[in-house]
Amino acid sequence: MDDVIAETTRTYPALVKREFGIEASYEAIADFDLSSSFGLTRAQLAHLFEVVHTKEVLMGFSPVTGVREALSAWQVAGYPIAVVTGRPPETRELSLTWLKMAGIPFDSFEICDKYGRHDPAQGPFITLDEIKTRTYTCAVEDSLSMAAFLSGTMKVPTFLFDRPWNRHTEGHPACTRCASWKEIARKATPLLQP
């Protein structure tokens, strides 16, 4: 969901400036580890994620350009839209509210513990083992490790949404790097033919 459907990380430099007085830029986020990219301590990173997951911040994200149109076209063509996110389980209701408020079409929504960070006390989530039991026509991902899992382990055609933190490598050979939803929609068309 984040950085594929919602422009999440683009808001982080302003939050880092507001919370810690540290100058940061979106394009400088060269690593999925934000403590490294922003020069934050572990305590500061934990605080940043507390702030990021507040209602004020979560509800303020903008949709990624072109996402509504692409997902709407796929849904109209009969393809179910499954939103799977690595957000903390306690953000479920806010995330669902944001999707509806932003007019993002979807048929199912699940929180997945992609990185082994979730605690059952936070609320329901699924595991990567459970994801492996699912069937997807294609996937769109911004995380290199998840894109490799989807395209390599699961053999799902995967579009890697180009972001600063995933540019240091080409990703999994089975992934297709794309710069926009318009490009994703165009390249996915052959997969979505009856």
TrEMBL record:
<protein>
    <submittedName>
        <fullName>Beta-phosphoglucomutase, HAD superfamily</fullName>
    </submittedName>
</protein>
<dbReference type="InterPro" id="IPR052419">
    <property type="entry name" value="5_3-deoxyribonucleotidase-like"/>
</dbReference>
<dbReference type="InterPro" id="IPR023214">
    <property type="entry name" value="HAD_sf"/>
</dbReference>
<dbReference type="InterPro" id="IPR036412">
    <property type="entry name" value="HAD-like_sf"/>
</dbReference>
